[in-house]
Write a structure and sequence with these properties.
Number of strands: 0
Strand content: under 5%
Radius of gyration: 12 Å
Oligomer: single chain
Structural class: mainly alpha
Largest sheet: none
């Protein structure tokens, strides 16, 4: 959800429709991921690695 938001040009409503959930579910999920990434270095690296792949593909 977070990567769709950051790199897919989608808002929470659009992401929710795509995934079959309410926009507020997307919002809460993105917030929880951000909170967990603040505490979990390994998770930050994983998300960062995925983000690197996406950015590379978009270039």
């Amino acid at each position: 959800m977070e990567l769709l938001y950051r790199h897919g040009g989608m808002n929470n409503r659009e992401i929710g429709e795509m995934l079959g959930v309410d926009y507020s579910t997307v919002s809460v999920g993105r917030k929880r991921l951000g909170d967990r990434m603040e505490q979990d270095r390994k998770l930050r690296r994983r998300v960062g690695g995925l983000e690197d792949v996406i950015v590379e593909e978009l270039d």
